[in-house]
Amino acid sequence: MVFVAVTALVVFGMFVAGWVAGILSRKLGPNPDSDSAAIGDLTRKLMVIEAERDNLEQALEELKKQTASEAAARNEDYYRAVDQLQNAQDTIDRLESSIRELMER
Question: What is the pLDDT of residues 34-93, one digit of tens each?
């Protein structure tokens, strides 16, 4: 009978010690509500940053398309100018040839 009473007392003491340890760990440990709030704030900030990143990526793609379009237009202008220059050079060469023929006569 003494053994049962001592065992019951030890088990009850362990229960009380665990209960006190649980209370102390909740009081002294990190506050889960503040952690949740911090995680919520970080999540909102991350969502805003991701939205900004997506907007910047879209603007970059539009800028790339615009730049490519402008480069293509300038490329066409360049080749058109080169063709005109070649035509002018051909005309000058023909005129010089005609002048030489006339001077030789």
Answer: 777 888 899 999 999 999 999 999 999 999 999 999 999 999 999 999 999 999 999 999
Question: What is the rounded CA–CA span in Å between residue 31 and residue 37?
Answer: 10
In this prediction, residue 32 carries a pLDDT of: 66
Instruction: Give the C-alpha separation, 70 to 94, whole Å.
Output: 36
Q: Max alpha carbon distance in the chain (Å)?
A: 148
- Averaged pLDDT for residues 16-21: 94
Token pair for 11:
């088990």
SS (H, E, C) the chain: CHHHHHHHHHHHHHHHHHHHHHHHHHHHCCCHHHHHHHHHHHHHHHHHHHHHHHHHHHHHHHHHHHHHHHHHHHHHHHHHHHHHHHHHHHHHHHHHHHHHHHHHC
